[in-house]
Request: fold
Amino acid sequence: MTIRSRIVGTGSYLPERIVSNAELTKTVDTSDEWIIERSGIRQRHIAADDETTADIAYQSALRALEASGVGIADIDMIVLATATPDNTFPSTATKVQAMLGMEHGAAFDVQAVCSGFIYALAVADNFIKVGQAERVMVIGAETFSRILDWQDRTTCVLFGDGGGAVVLEKSEEGDGIFSTHLHSDGRHGNLLYVDGGPSTTQTVGHLRMSGREVFRHAVVNLAAVVDETLAANNFQRSDIDWLVPHQANLRILSGTARKLGLSEDQVVITVDRHANTSAASIPLALDEAVRDGRIQKGQLVLLEAMGGGFTWGAALVRW
Ligand code: ACO
Reply:
Protein backbone atom coordinates (compact mmCIF):
# COMPACT_ATOMS: atom_id res chain seq x y z
CA MET A 1 0.00 0.00 0.00
CA THR A 2 1.18 3.51 -0.81
CA ILE A 3 2.48 5.50 2.13
CA ARG A 4 0.80 8.87 2.43
CA SER A 5 0.42 11.46 5.13
CA ARG A 6 -3.03 12.35 6.39
CA ILE A 7 -4.34 15.19 8.50
CA VAL A 8 -5.46 13.79 11.85
CA GLY A 9 -6.21 17.05 13.65
CA THR A 10 -6.65 20.75 12.94
CA GLY A 11 -6.51 23.81 15.17
CA SER A 12 -6.50 27.56 14.82
CA TYR A 13 -6.29 30.76 16.79
CA LEU A 14 -7.35 34.35 16.16
CA PRO A 15 -6.29 37.30 18.32
CA GLU A 16 -9.13 38.63 20.42
CA ARG A 17 -9.21 42.15 18.99
CA ILE A 18 -11.46 42.58 15.95
CA VAL A 19 -11.04 45.68 13.81
CA SER A 20 -13.98 46.48 11.53
CA ASN A 21 -13.75 48.42 8.27
CA ALA A 22 -15.67 51.21 10.01
CA GLU A 23 -12.97 51.43 12.69
CA LEU A 24 -10.28 51.67 10.00
CA THR A 25 -12.03 54.62 8.37
CA LYS A 26 -11.18 56.67 11.48
CA THR A 27 -7.48 56.56 10.64
CA VAL A 28 -7.32 55.60 6.93
CA ASP A 29 -8.87 57.39 3.94
CA THR A 30 -11.12 54.49 2.94
CA SER A 31 -14.70 53.26 3.27
CA ASP A 32 -16.51 50.09 4.30
CA GLU A 33 -18.13 49.99 0.84
CA TRP A 34 -14.78 50.22 -1.03
CA ILE A 35 -13.16 47.47 1.04
CA ILE A 36 -16.14 45.11 0.76
CA GLU A 37 -16.65 45.73 -2.95
CA ARG A 38 -12.97 45.26 -3.91
CA SER A 39 -11.99 42.50 -1.48
CA GLY A 40 -15.01 41.06 0.38
CA ILE A 41 -13.31 41.91 3.70
CA ARG A 42 -15.53 43.18 6.55
CA GLN A 43 -13.17 42.85 9.51
CA ARG A 44 -9.79 41.47 10.60
CA HIS A 45 -8.21 40.29 13.86
CA ILE A 46 -5.19 42.20 15.12
CA ALA A 47 -2.67 40.80 17.62
CA ALA A 48 -2.34 42.42 21.04
CA ASP A 49 0.83 44.48 21.56
CA ASP A 50 2.47 41.72 23.56
CA GLU A 51 1.24 38.89 21.32
CA THR A 52 3.70 37.48 18.78
CA THR A 53 3.60 35.06 15.87
CA ALA A 54 5.01 32.35 18.16
CA ASP A 55 2.18 32.89 20.66
CA ILE A 56 -0.39 32.57 17.88
CA ALA A 57 1.36 29.49 16.46
CA TYR A 58 1.55 27.89 19.91
CA GLN A 59 -2.20 28.31 20.54
CA SER A 60 -2.97 26.89 17.09
CA ALA A 61 -0.67 23.92 17.68
CA LEU A 62 -2.22 23.15 21.08
CA ARG A 63 -5.67 23.02 19.49
CA ALA A 64 -4.45 20.78 16.65
CA LEU A 65 -2.83 18.43 19.15
CA GLU A 66 -6.03 18.28 21.18
CA ALA A 67 -8.13 17.56 18.09
CA SER A 68 -5.76 14.84 16.90
CA GLY A 69 -5.37 13.10 20.26
CA VAL A 70 -1.62 12.98 19.55
CA GLY A 71 0.74 13.91 22.38
CA ILE A 72 3.72 16.19 21.84
CA ALA A 73 6.02 13.23 22.59
CA ASP A 74 4.82 11.63 19.35
CA ILE A 75 5.51 14.64 17.12
CA ASP A 76 8.79 14.22 15.22
CA MET A 77 8.99 17.62 13.58
CA ILE A 78 7.52 21.10 13.47
CA VAL A 79 7.38 22.95 10.15
CA LEU A 80 6.15 26.51 10.58
CA ALA A 81 5.27 28.80 7.69
CA THR A 82 5.54 32.51 8.38
CA ALA A 83 6.71 35.73 6.77
CA THR A 84 6.44 37.55 10.10
CA PRO A 85 8.78 35.66 12.45
CA ASP A 86 9.32 36.82 16.02
CA ASN A 87 13.01 37.37 15.27
CA THR A 88 15.30 37.10 12.26
CA PHE A 89 16.66 34.08 14.13
CA PRO A 90 16.18 31.69 15.84
CA SER A 91 13.26 30.38 13.85
CA THR A 92 9.76 30.84 15.23
CA ALA A 93 9.37 27.06 14.92
CA THR A 94 12.08 26.42 17.51
CA LYS A 95 10.45 28.95 19.82
CA VAL A 96 7.14 27.12 19.49
CA GLN A 97 8.96 23.81 20.02
CA ALA A 98 10.18 25.09 23.39
CA MET A 99 6.74 26.48 24.29
CA LEU A 100 5.22 23.06 23.59
CA GLY A 101 7.80 21.43 25.86
CA MET A 102 9.23 19.42 22.97
CA GLU A 103 12.89 18.55 23.50
CA HIS A 104 13.35 16.08 20.65
CA GLY A 105 13.05 16.11 16.87
CA ALA A 106 13.54 19.09 14.59
CA ALA A 107 11.76 22.40 14.05
CA PHE A 108 12.24 24.94 11.30
CA ASP A 109 10.51 27.77 9.45
CA VAL A 110 9.46 27.85 5.82
CA GLN A 111 9.07 31.17 4.03
CA ALA A 112 6.85 31.38 0.97
CA VAL A 113 4.60 34.23 2.18
CA CYS A 114 0.94 33.46 1.41
CA SER A 115 1.82 30.08 -0.13
CA GLY A 116 3.75 29.21 3.01
CA PHE A 117 1.26 26.70 4.37
CA ILE A 118 1.18 24.74 1.09
CA TYR A 119 5.00 24.77 1.02
CA ALA A 120 5.21 23.63 4.66
CA LEU A 121 2.61 20.92 4.05
CA ALA A 122 4.59 19.68 1.02
CA VAL A 123 7.82 19.56 3.04
CA ALA A 124 6.14 17.67 5.89
CA ASP A 125 4.33 15.30 3.51
CA ASN A 126 7.60 14.41 1.80
CA PHE A 127 9.43 13.82 5.10
CA ILE A 128 6.69 11.34 5.99
CA LYS A 129 6.68 9.68 2.56
CA VAL A 130 10.43 9.02 2.63
CA GLY A 131 10.15 7.61 6.15
CA GLN A 132 12.11 10.30 8.00
CA ALA A 133 9.14 11.30 10.15
CA GLU A 134 5.87 9.70 11.24
CA ARG A 135 4.05 12.71 12.66
CA VAL A 136 4.64 16.34 11.79
CA MET A 137 3.05 19.50 13.17
CA VAL A 138 2.51 21.94 10.28
CA ILE A 139 1.72 25.51 11.29
CA GLY A 140 0.93 28.72 9.44
CA ALA A 141 1.03 31.79 11.69
CA GLU A 142 1.35 35.50 11.01
CA THR A 143 1.26 38.97 12.50
CA PHE A 144 1.01 40.91 9.25
CA SER A 145 -0.25 43.92 11.21
CA ARG A 146 3.41 44.46 12.21
CA ILE A 147 4.65 44.87 8.61
CA LEU A 148 1.79 46.96 7.25
CA ASP A 149 2.20 50.62 6.42
CA TRP A 150 -0.91 51.90 8.18
CA GLN A 151 -0.71 55.08 6.04
CA ASP A 152 -1.00 53.07 2.81
CA ARG A 153 -4.69 52.48 2.18
CA THR A 154 -3.98 50.26 -0.83
CA THR A 155 -2.53 47.54 1.43
CA CYS A 156 -3.34 48.05 5.13
CA VAL A 157 -7.05 47.33 4.76
CA LEU A 158 -6.42 43.89 3.24
CA PHE A 159 -4.53 41.93 5.90
CA GLY A 160 -5.02 40.46 9.37
CA ASP A 161 -3.33 38.30 12.03
CA GLY A 162 -3.97 34.66 12.96
CA GLY A 163 -2.73 31.10 12.93
CA GLY A 164 -3.69 27.56 12.04
CA ALA A 165 -2.09 24.15 12.42
CA VAL A 166 -2.53 20.54 11.38
CA VAL A 167 -1.06 17.29 12.66
CA LEU A 168 0.10 15.10 9.79
CA GLU A 169 0.48 11.38 10.34
CA LYS A 170 1.74 8.50 8.23
CA SER A 171 -1.11 6.50 6.70
CA GLU A 172 -1.24 3.32 4.66
CA GLU A 173 -5.00 3.35 4.28
CA GLY A 174 -5.27 5.11 0.92
CA ASP A 175 -6.49 8.41 2.35
CA GLY A 176 -4.50 11.58 2.99
CA ILE A 177 -2.48 13.87 0.74
CA PHE A 178 -2.46 12.55 -2.83
CA SER A 179 0.03 15.11 -4.09
CA THR A 180 1.45 18.58 -3.57
CA HIS A 181 2.56 20.94 -6.34
CA LEU A 182 4.85 23.90 -5.74
CA HIS A 183 5.87 26.71 -8.08
CA SER A 184 7.71 29.99 -7.93
CA ASP A 185 8.81 32.71 -10.32
CA GLY A 186 11.26 35.14 -8.76
CA ARG A 187 11.04 37.57 -11.68
CA HIS A 188 7.92 39.02 -10.05
CA GLY A 189 9.44 39.68 -6.64
CA ASN A 190 8.96 43.41 -7.02
CA LEU A 191 5.16 43.16 -7.32
CA LEU A 192 4.63 42.03 -3.73
CA TYR A 193 7.45 42.46 -1.22
CA VAL A 194 8.59 43.99 2.07
CA ASP A 195 10.88 46.98 1.62
CA GLY A 196 13.26 46.04 4.42
CA GLY A 197 15.31 43.20 5.84
CA PRO A 198 18.45 42.37 7.80
CA SER A 199 20.80 42.25 4.82
CA THR A 200 19.43 45.27 2.96
CA THR A 201 18.11 48.03 5.21
CA GLN A 202 18.64 46.45 8.65
CA THR A 203 14.98 47.28 9.30
CA VAL A 204 11.85 45.15 9.27
CA GLY A 205 10.24 47.15 6.45
CA HIS A 206 6.68 47.41 5.18
CA LEU A 207 4.59 45.40 2.77
CA ARG A 208 4.36 46.87 -0.75
CA MET A 209 2.03 45.51 -3.40
CA SER A 210 1.01 46.22 -6.97
CA GLY A 211 -2.50 44.93 -6.33
CA ARG A 212 -3.77 44.81 -9.91
CA GLU A 213 -0.71 42.95 -11.20
CA VAL A 214 -0.86 40.47 -8.32
CA PHE A 215 -4.55 39.90 -9.02
CA ARG A 216 -3.89 39.19 -12.71
CA HIS A 217 -1.11 36.67 -11.98
CA ALA A 218 -3.08 35.03 -9.15
CA VAL A 219 -6.05 34.15 -11.34
CA VAL A 220 -3.85 32.60 -14.07
CA ASN A 221 -1.41 30.75 -11.77
CA LEU A 222 -4.10 29.34 -9.49
CA ALA A 223 -6.15 27.98 -12.39
CA ALA A 224 -3.01 26.34 -13.84
CA VAL A 225 -1.88 24.69 -10.60
CA VAL A 226 -5.39 23.42 -9.86
CA ASP A 227 -5.56 21.75 -13.27
CA GLU A 228 -2.04 20.35 -12.85
CA THR A 229 -2.99 18.86 -9.47
CA LEU A 230 -6.19 17.26 -10.73
CA ALA A 231 -4.47 15.86 -13.84
CA ALA A 232 -1.63 14.37 -11.75
CA ASN A 233 -4.24 12.33 -9.87
CA ASN A 234 -6.64 11.59 -12.74
CA PHE A 235 -9.45 13.58 -11.20
CA GLN A 236 -11.94 15.89 -12.87
CA ARG A 237 -12.95 19.30 -11.59
CA SER A 238 -16.34 17.78 -10.72
CA ASP A 239 -14.67 15.33 -8.30
CA ILE A 240 -13.75 18.14 -5.88
CA ASP A 241 -15.97 18.32 -2.80
CA TRP A 242 -14.31 21.31 -1.15
CA LEU A 243 -12.00 24.08 -2.22
CA VAL A 244 -10.02 25.57 0.68
CA PRO A 245 -8.14 28.45 -0.93
CA HIS A 246 -5.75 31.01 0.45
CA GLN A 247 -8.00 33.89 1.47
CA ALA A 248 -6.64 36.98 -0.29
CA ASN A 249 -9.66 38.45 -1.96
CA LEU A 250 -13.25 37.29 -2.41
CA ARG A 251 -13.13 38.16 -6.10
CA ILE A 252 -10.15 35.81 -6.63
CA LEU A 253 -11.94 33.04 -4.69
CA SER A 254 -15.15 33.46 -6.64
CA GLY A 255 -13.25 33.58 -9.94
CA THR A 256 -11.37 30.36 -9.14
CA ALA A 257 -14.57 28.62 -8.04
CA ARG A 258 -16.34 29.69 -11.25
CA LYS A 259 -13.45 28.38 -13.38
CA LEU A 260 -13.65 25.04 -11.56
CA GLY A 261 -17.41 24.84 -11.97
CA LEU A 262 -17.83 24.77 -8.18
CA SER A 263 -20.72 26.47 -6.45
CA GLU A 264 -19.75 29.11 -3.89
CA ASP A 265 -20.97 26.89 -1.07
CA GLN A 266 -18.26 24.35 -1.96
CA VAL A 267 -15.64 27.01 -1.23
CA VAL A 268 -14.59 27.61 2.38
CA ILE A 269 -14.60 31.37 2.78
CA THR A 270 -13.19 33.23 5.78
CA VAL A 271 -11.72 36.31 4.08
CA ASP A 272 -14.80 38.34 5.07
CA ARG A 273 -13.99 37.87 8.78
CA HIS A 274 -10.22 37.22 8.82
CA ALA A 275 -8.97 39.30 5.84
CA ASN A 276 -5.71 37.99 4.33
CA THR A 277 -3.71 36.20 7.04
CA SER A 278 -1.04 35.01 4.59
CA ALA A 279 0.35 31.56 5.58
CA ALA A 280 -2.34 31.20 8.25
CA SER A 281 -5.36 31.55 6.02
CA ILE A 282 -5.63 27.98 4.69
CA PRO A 283 -5.25 26.19 8.05
CA LEU A 284 -7.65 28.72 9.60
CA ALA A 285 -10.27 28.02 6.94
CA LEU A 286 -9.64 24.28 7.07
CA ASP A 287 -10.07 24.19 10.85
CA GLU A 288 -13.34 26.10 10.62
CA ALA A 289 -14.81 23.75 8.01
CA VAL A 290 -13.64 20.61 9.82
CA ARG A 291 -14.99 21.75 13.18
CA ASP A 292 -18.38 22.84 11.85
CA GLY A 293 -18.77 19.50 10.08
CA ARG A 294 -18.67 20.70 6.48
CA ILE A 295 -15.60 18.62 5.57
CA GLN A 296 -16.40 14.94 6.08
CA LYS A 297 -14.30 11.79 5.95
CA GLY A 298 -13.84 10.47 2.42
CA GLN A 299 -14.32 13.85 0.72
CA LEU A 300 -11.86 15.30 -1.77
CA VAL A 301 -10.41 18.62 -0.62
CA LEU A 302 -8.28 20.92 -2.75
CA LEU A 303 -6.02 23.48 -1.07
CA GLU A 304 -4.38 26.24 -3.14
CA ALA A 305 -2.46 29.45 -2.59
CA MET A 306 -0.51 32.19 -4.30
CA GLY A 307 1.81 34.68 -2.65
CA GLY A 308 4.82 36.94 -2.83
CA GLY A 309 7.86 35.68 -4.71
CA PHE A 310 5.76 34.86 -6.68
CA THR A 311 5.10 31.50 -5.11
CA TRP A 312 2.06 29.33 -5.65
CA GLY A 313 0.96 25.77 -5.08
CA ALA A 314 -1.77 23.26 -4.36
CA ALA A 315 -2.41 20.08 -2.41
CA LEU A 316 -5.09 17.46 -3.01
CA VAL A 317 -6.33 15.60 0.06
CA ARG A 318 -8.73 12.70 0.55
CA TRP A 319 -10.10 13.50 3.99
N1 ACO B 1 -10.01 52.76 0.03
C1 ACO B 1 -10.51 53.58 -0.92
N2 ACO B 1 -9.93 53.72 -2.13
C2 ACO B 1 -8.83 52.99 -2.37
C3 ACO B 1 -8.27 52.12 -1.42
C4 ACO B 1 -8.90 52.02 -0.17
N3 ACO B 1 -8.46 51.22 0.80
N4 ACO B 1 -7.18 51.54 -1.95
C5 ACO B 1 -7.06 52.00 -3.19
N5 ACO B 1 -8.06 52.89 -3.47
C6 ACO B 1 -8.30 53.61 -4.69
C7 ACO B 1 -7.05 53.74 -5.51
O1 ACO B 1 -6.30 54.86 -5.10
C8 ACO B 1 -7.62 53.93 -6.91
O2 ACO B 1 -8.03 55.27 -7.04
P1 ACO B 1 -7.75 56.05 -8.42
O3 ACO B 1 -8.51 55.27 -9.45
O4 ACO B 1 -8.28 57.39 -8.11
O5 ACO B 1 -6.26 55.98 -8.59
C9 ACO B 1 -8.88 53.08 -6.90
O6 ACO B 1 -9.20 52.85 -5.52
C10 ACO B 1 -8.71 51.73 -7.59
O7 ACO B 1 -7.51 51.13 -7.13
P2 ACO B 1 -7.02 49.74 -7.71
O8 ACO B 1 -5.76 49.34 -7.03
O9 ACO B 1 -7.00 49.79 -9.19
O10 ACO B 1 -8.22 48.81 -7.24
P3 ACO B 1 -8.50 47.31 -7.58
O11 ACO B 1 -9.86 47.15 -8.08
O12 ACO B 1 -7.39 46.67 -8.36
O13 ACO B 1 -8.49 46.66 -6.13
C11 ACO B 1 -7.05 45.34 -4.73
C12 ACO B 1 -7.32 46.70 -5.33
C13 ACO B 1 -8.17 44.99 -3.76
C14 ACO B 1 -5.73 45.41 -3.98
C15 ACO B 1 -6.99 44.27 -5.84
O14 ACO B 1 -6.15 44.69 -6.86
C16 ACO B 1 -6.53 42.95 -5.34
O15 ACO B 1 -7.19 42.31 -4.57
N6 ACO B 1 -5.37 42.48 -5.81
C17 ACO B 1 -4.83 41.24 -5.40
C18 ACO B 1 -4.21 41.42 -4.10
C19 ACO B 1 -3.91 40.12 -3.50
O16 ACO B 1 -4.58 39.15 -3.72
N7 ACO B 1 -2.88 40.14 -2.71
C20 ACO B 1 -2.50 39.06 -1.98
C21 ACO B 1 -2.04 37.91 -2.83
S1 ACO B 1 -0.61 37.25 -2.27
C22 ACO B 1 -0.67 37.46 -0.68
O17 ACO B 1 -1.64 37.05 -0.11
C23 ACO B 1 0.43 38.17 0.02
User: Anything to note?
Assistant: The two ends are 17 Å apart (CA to CA). Residues 30, 34-35, 38-39, 113-114, 153-154, 157, 192, 209, 211-212, 214-215, 218, 248-249, 252, 276, 278, 306-308 surround acetyl coenzyme *A (CB under 6 Å). Residues 211-232 form the longest helix (22 residues).
